[in-house]
Amino acid sequence: MNKTMDWEQNVRRAEPYVPGEQPGGRSIIKLNTNECPYPPAPGVRRRAESLDFDRLRLYPDTEAGPLAAALCEYYGVRPEQLFIGVGSDDVLAMAFLTFFNSGKPILFPDITYSFYHVWAQLYRIPYVRKPLDRELRIVKEDYLGENGGIIIPNPNAPTGIFEEVGVMEEIIAANRGSVVILDEAYVDFGGESCQKLIDQYDNLLVVQTFSKSRAMAGMRIGFAMGSPKLIRCLKDVKFSFNSYTMNMPSIELGVESVRDEGYFRATVDKVIATRERMKGELGRLGFSFPDSKANFLFASHESVPARRIFEELKGEGIYVRYWDQPRISNRLRITVGTDREMDMLIEKLEAILHRISGEGAEMEKKND
Ligand code: PMP
């Protein structure tokens, strides 16, 4: 018998999530992974410069103590209601493994964060994707039937659409027998968190991240808030997997970010102001998009295909996100950058659209 064949047949196969490109070089404009265009709070830099290098010898605190304390104080939750992980991807992956274990299909929108179906496949969790409606909104009724768990981002990604807390509460209340995970990666940009519901619903897990509004994607800090029962189960699985996931610098630097509320608010407000300005500018160029409450817009142009614009922009060193997938293949997800980056984007888009419409007119003349 062929021994190699044996193991090859039994490998756990996965089709990995494809993240946005991380191109190098200073001259590019990177609007493809929803990072914050501004640096982390000044206190984060100061703490980074004075980190106790010798402490790297030691294992970090398994409970990320100082960061957990800062987050508990900030959100008004008890330590037994908080879970911290290496980015919200880590938190979500652990939550899938812990809570989606009934054998019944879990539910999530058809257009959403594309890591959900990857984890479902990896862990062999059956799943059903519920189609968003024509306006790309979640259809609440789709989430009221029997299921093995629910995961919804609010605001949704890549649409940017925020559904009111009342809508989410109906879904949570109708599913007391399964765990509802709300992925609030973008909630700080104008949404409202469902965190206030965790005392009331022991089946609710709210997941957030430092990667977007706190400008710390490179540090990898995510966290979840939920009932003590949920958090205990999550920690039991996590500590059965790896107990030292949060590194010491992330713990220390994360604390400084949480402490500087003024900087956090100012940064988020700047992103929101730029996003609102962009809605007008892109509309003027013939783009339409859902009303985003996140740090990105999900735009399609009235006449030029998204793929063409994506490629032209890339040629100019401007990276946005494009998916060649059903229902969204004529849309671009554009992260809100600095005002200067957005001005350059608009300038390039104007030139590209002008050139392409010129090509169209040329073709028509030739055909006459
Ligand atoms: N959820 C959503 C909806 C996202 O868009 C992202 C960013 N890719 C994440 C979770 C994960 O972010 P992170 O792991 O950096 O916290």
**What characteristic shape results from the CA principal axes?**
globular
Looking across the biggest beta sheet, what order are the strands in? Answer: 2-8-7-6-5
Mean pLDDT: 95
Order of helices and strands: HEHHEHEHEEHEEEHHHEEHEEEH
Helix percent band:
25-40%
Low-confidence stretches: none
Q: Strand share of the residues? A: 5-15%
Radius of gyration: 22 Å
**Which small molecules are bound?**
4'-deoxy-4'-aminopyridoxal-5'-phosphate
Structural class comes to: alpha/beta
**For the report, how would you describe the main beta sheet?**
5 strands, mixed
Please report the distance between the alpha carbons of the first and last residues: 69 Å
How many beta-strand elements? 13
Provide a count of the helices. Answer: 11
